[in-house]
Amino acid sequence: MSFGSAYLTLPDFEYVKPKSLQEALQFIDQHKDEAEILAGGVGLFAFMKERLVEPRWVVDIKAIKELQTLRDDGSKGLTIGAAVNMNQLLDFAPIKEKYKALHDCVSLLSDPLLRNRSTIIGDICEALPYVDGPTPLLIFDTEVEAASVKGTRRIPMNEFIKGVAENALEPNELAVAVHLKPPPENSKSLFLKHTSSSEFSIVNVAVLCANPSRPEARTVRFAYGAIAPIPKRVHEVEDLFKRKTPVPKLIDEAIESIKKSAEPMTDVLAKAEYRSHMLEVLAVRAFRRLLGS
Amino acid sequence: MGYIGKSMPQYDSFLKVTGTATYAFDVELPGMLHAKLVTSPHAHAKIVKIDTSKAEKVPGVVAVATGQEFPYRLGIYVGDRDVLAIDKVRWVGHPVAAVIAETLEAAERGIDQVEVEYEPLPTVFDPVEALKPDAPIMHEKMSEYRVSPAFKPIPGTNIANQFKLVRGDAERGLKESEVIVEGEFDIPHVSHGFMELQSIVAHYEKDGTIEIWTSTQSPFSTRYLMALSLGIPIDKIVVKAPLCGGGFGGKVGIGWEPLVALLSKRAGFRPVKLVLSRKEQFSSAPVREGFHASVKAGFKKDGKMVAYKARFVMDAGGYADYTVNVCRAAGYSSEGCYEVPNIFCESLAVYTNKGATSAMRGFGYPESHWALERIMDMAAVKLKIDPLELRLINILKPGESETGTGERLREDTGDPVALAKSVAQAIGWGKPPEKAKRPGRYRGKGLALCIKGPAQPPNAAASAIIKFNEDVSVDLNIGTASFGQGTPTSLSQIVADELGIPVEKVRVGLVRSTDLSAYTWQTVGSRGLFTDGIAVMDALRDAKAQIKDVASQVLKVKPEELEIANEQVFIKGAPWHRLPLSEVVFGYTYPDGRSIGGPIIGRGKFMSPLTTYLDPDTGQGVPTIFHTFGGAGVEIEVDVLTGEIEIINAAQAFDVGKAINPLLVKGQIDGGWVMGQSVALYEQIVFDEQGWVVNPNLSNYRIMRAKEMPHKIQEIILETPQSNAPHGARGLGELVMVAVAPAIANAIYNAIGVQITKLPMSPENVWRAIHERRPELIEEARRKLRESGGE
Amino acid sequence: MTQVISIKVNGVDRKVTIKDNELLLDVIRDKIGVKSVKAGCWRGECGLCTVLLDGKPVKSCLVLAVEADSREVKTAEGLAPEGQLSPLQKIFVEKAAMQCGFCTPSFVLTAHYLLSVNPNPTESEIIDYLSGHICRCGTYEQIIEAILDYAKQHKQTEKATAQKAK
């Protein structure tokens, strides 16, 4: 199989632009797999030009007010609606201040023009191994809010991606928002990625740290992605950092733990060995930056 | 009115910056239909049956054509190409049918309905395997192909061309050597990556004339080869070449034009347009061949190279038309710009079940120089001689040395010693690089030299016509295609300078049309400025002679006593005896009404009196019309942890003879560096085990963008004029990317002692090379990373 | 479904009949006849199809025409009155920030937008902003110089105007 878009036109479909969330949910419930969601369209149109996806209906959600939410509620956390584009995220100060890993990730994604259109929810729904969005979301205990005519439910981010191009949404569900839990006070976070002979990531990491110099109060969160179909949050690593052992030793142990859990793949973008090595490099760099020495 | 050496933007800049320039991609003819290709999913298979009935019923589809209908073979050097696959397909992506429809959308629906039944055949993807006696044969009918006499395909094998360069006795030379250096070198398939996709609009008219608009560098070759293959009189075909959005050698010879013309006929003589998708550029259109070199070079202890033995195996894919000449050019450039008394180079172009291949900027020289310039640095290590010094010891001496083909270099070919030193100085050669600031990073310096001339048949011709208008503006009529290199602008400067008129009054025009434009063989091989420039200067001489002839009768002096400047013709030394050119260029009318002369038409031409065919067994002869020396120097920083290469300081130098337009020359140097760096560090067409191109898009086939630009590229222009060149100018359009890859690899060795022999030098590939050869560097960096974060 | 959309292109109101699945790129080129907008990949990778949609740069190969209903599109032809060049376009020409010219309209539009929101960009900001565009002829250095030059000149003009006002 090779991605490349031999087709220059899109297959036939009907375009609908629901004005309310209810209208959209009813439509999706009625048409399920025959309907595809259009927010930014960057992923959708590429797949359609490959004829990997040929929906009968394309549902443009950008007019739905509820999906344009971009709100930081202090103790309640950050809400990003499905129709919020990535440049809006970059311009939103609370993300840069408190959810820096997400800010870093978005600023490195594609390019400023595509970011005028693409959305973070679109990114995670695509669920391809090389998408970067899931990784920072994992360290903020993100929940994906999925809505249908039957109501809403929250899907934890670490259960959202099921496989290559496979997410946890039911055919009649729409991901309407992601909810990031407020990070610990004074915590810092960051995101790193690495590419080789492609524009797409072959490994990415996100780390959050609070109280780096006080082991008993220290919080460390770590997630990685792009090395395998499913991005992971590595909890074993996080418990490890509460010990009084000197930080460099803790980092060593963390790397051992991460490498045990990681199952890097070999594909056209990179071989497993290199991914494994770069995972270590990025993880150490990230830990070092946030934990110091 | 000195325009020679004057920097100025290209004459068509206004159109380009407002987006109002027309490219073939933009051309539309009334009643135009759209074509789309059906391509093979098999790497090697018999075509058992094609059922087009369903496709023909798709609303909007006008016709569906298959290979059987077009029993013609195409090619410039080897006629190995079918218009559409006839008996079998030879690679994944090989076009087998074409759907023609009222809209592109209908055509794209149509291709889904074409049913093709295949019978898979055994495949061979490795050219070395393809050379084995029991390998599946790609072209069983090779002996029937029209072959240009310069090439040697071997029927019954997969060898599309076998070229040998033999000079002296390489075996004896190696025996007499005191130090021997060996290496194996690899370059993957690479895509031209021009931004304007191949676009063709063709109208086969009912009276048999064919009008073609195409994105091309070669309207005349296309016309000629099409006439030849289809058995049509040449004048029945009119090929129009508008501004071209990037050629890089990928829009040359003969391409899709015959197909689209035949589709037009098939569709009831309506115009048809074909635009390739980016995916099809990677998997159906010709790309640059894969390359493997085995090299053994012998030196004396004092550094003199006494022998160079090489074997080049080119993975030429399913069709090897232009590649056979690339194979030859790589062969006769194998020793580069060095004087080597004993050379044996066997260069083979081998058919495999990968995509068709063709020429690309550099034409075999990036390939041969990747091996050679790496060998030079490897030898420098073994000989314990500085790499610059080693090169200077062996460099060709204009006027004295003979090249590998036995051509004695013209005295005025350039100053390679000054050039090499200028490149070295630009990167501070001799001074060790500054220590990298961050741990795990190392800096190194490297350089590479190169030489190139156009690869063309010895009798490739050029011509030019100069016509005047009533206001003494000039129509410069040339065949030079315009794809960004700026040659037409430089030619207009030559005309303006010679005639003493403002350059704004020289009109070059935007479309080359084979029925109206002056002929030139092709705009390839860096030949344009030289060959078309000589033709233009010839036309200027002719025009001026005609002007002086008329004026001499009126001013009553001999023609040689006259001078032309400032839109006037006047007596030397007594310029008040003058005539305005406006009164001469349309003939002169006496006060009583009688007239002499007539519209002045300057005619010029160029054929090379010096180039020859090459000896079929030894490759000896004079293959090219000029040689340009060049070189690249670079300081890099390599991160051993990631394998990433950062370009700290880059410099390229070229002895162009004369920079007619320095701004455009610098643009070529910079642009060539970018393309060279891109191919060196990022680009690779990846095939899977079934022969599919796995990365036929611009995300996974990574082309350099602004973010990978070096901090600085220094452009060094040397001007050792060549006496038979227009104002001394030689070409450089391809040379600008030849030395980049080896210079970078040489710098990497200088930095960390790791020899890189495979391209691309992507982060992963560099890391792997370090991991294999100096793992301790990575270990140390990892240790430092753990200790201090590595930053 | 077929519908008629209203779209303003370079200041001119147009009504176009379109199908739902038509791309903004194709409608601009084929139905409205504005050819400066090119295409090279149809996947948003090369940047050739850049247009300003309601003032913001987007890649029109990834936008449906129907999404542009009642909106405004600007292309390279619309940056200056017909027959003239905008100051930025003039600098692009002077700096030879183009060779084959196929990518030039897309770089000019993107630079135009960048300078309108960031009149004094650093080299790093420019490079980041151009990351979605490819110039195969390799004129990045000239393009970056043109943008920096424009910013410098514009700052001087502003200074001069401000001083005059004093």
Word description of this protein:
The complex is a heterotrimer of chains A (293), B (791) and C (166). With 293 residues, chain A is of the alpha+beta class. Chain A is 32% helix and 23% strand. Chain A has helices spanning 21-31, 42-49, 86-91, 93-98, 100-108, 120-126, 134-139, 235-240, 247-261, 272-291, and strands at 14-16, 35-38, 57-60, 70-72, 78-81, 143-148, 151-156, 161-163, 166-167, 174-180, 188-194, 203-210, 219-225, 232-233. Chain A is globular and about 60 Å long. The N and C termini of chain A lie far apart (46 Å). The model of chain A has no long low-confidence stretch (mean pLDDT 94). By secondary structure, chain B is α+β, with helices and mostly antiparallel strands. Chain B is 26% helix and 25% strand. Chain C folds into two domains: 2-78, Beta-grasp domain (Ubiquitin-like (UB roll)), CATH 3.10.20.30; 87-165, DNA polymerase, domain 1. In chain C, 38% of the residues lie in helices and 17% in strands. Chain C has a five-stranded mixed beta sheet, with helices on both faces. Chains in contact: A-B, A-C, B-C.
The secondary-structure element order of chain A is EHEHEEEHHHHHEEEEEEEEEHHH
Give the end-to-end Cα distance of chain A, rounded to a whole number of Å: 46 Å
Unreliable sequence segments of chain B: none
| Structural class assignment of chain B | alpha+beta
Distance between the termini of chain B: 57 Å
Task: Please report the number of helical segments of chain A.
Answer: 10
Q: Biggest sheet of chain A, strands in spatial order?
A: 4-5-10-6-7
Taken from the alpha-carbon principal axes, the silhouette of chain B is: globular
Number of helices of chain B: 18
Q: Just name the CATH architecture of the largest domain in chain A.
A: 2-Layer Sandwich
What is the overall pLDDT average of chain B?
96
Binned, the helix content of chain B reads 25-40%
Oligomer: heterotrimer
Summarize the largest interface: chains and residue counts: B-C, 55 and 51 residues
Report Rg of chain A.
19 Å
What fraction of residues of chain B sit in β-strands? 25-35%
